[in-house]
Amino acid sequence: MLTGALLLVGGALVAVGLLPRPAIDRHAIRGTLVALLRTDRAARDAFPGLIDAVAAALGAGLSLDRAFAEIAGTLPRDLERATARAAGALALGDPVDRALASYAGVVPEADLAPFAVVLVAFTRTGGRIGRSLGRVARLLRSRLALDDERSALTAQSRMSAAVLLGLAPLGAIAFAILSPEYLATFGGRGRGLAAAAIALEIVGALWLRRLTRPPAGSPELASLVDAVIVGLEAGMTFEHALAALVERAPRVARLPEARRLLADLRLGRPPRSAFAAFAAAGPQEARIAGLVEAASRFGTPLAELLVAQADALREGERRRAEARARRLPVLLLFPLTFCVLPALLIVFLGPPLLSVAGP
After folding, report:
1. pTM score > 0.90 for this model?
2. Would you say 288 and 278 are in contact if contact means Cβ atoms under 8 Å apart?
3. d(CA 294, CA 25)
């Protein structure tokens, strides 16, 4: 007799578990859950500060390996270890790219790529790189702020969905404790109702997960433009900056368009036709291509033009996230009406109705 009720409660709890959860603090929760996290949010938050500190240390006359060694002790544990390994690799004469590989799994490659571009340019040509590193730190902070805003805009909807999905299993547990006949009903004639409730909860959870999942990993043309700006300010040409980005961040946003444009330029295709093909990917790409072509024709500093365009792209992404968050409560009505509410009715009214109906 317990089989149907246990299945109902277990299936509903699994459905609640399908909902997205906030980021886990690996300093508070350790063990096997830590291994499931791709990057530590504390390390990612501290990474822009590391970049500012490296810029200050280099500006004070320290060597690159010494700068990393001095900064390591002030960072969160995982970032401290990676920075200490990078300092040791640099002290042994390893190139910058190999030394920065110590941050793999600690800092996302899309965040690490512009930092690597600037440091590689510095080791090759020297000079003052404080402005370029400051640009890297600012763009990483803007990415973090945008990700936090996206997550915050959907946090209330995610919590509401989790609470509503949890009503069915909690109700089943309460009725099972208060009334033994409740378990007997679901273990006998109510097995079909129990299976239907479980199926509705799982479908509703998957539906709600798709609606409330923050689109933090969505492609951003702004991230690509930011990284190219960093390369330009470090003294690279547009082609070299794009090549450095593609090489160091193979999963960076809008990568297919970037690879196609880079291949066209390297094969000797005229820049005008290469950027025309890039512009065909969409209106945002068309604006970027127009800016690059105008800068090359009239001698305008390209980095300044791209800065304004990147800011406009990020602001547009923020507005789209806000609009999506405003639509979300309306969209949630569909899974709640067609999945969660019927499951609640089955749990709360199914056994009483079966008891009234008799054998």
Report:
1. no
2. yes
3. 47
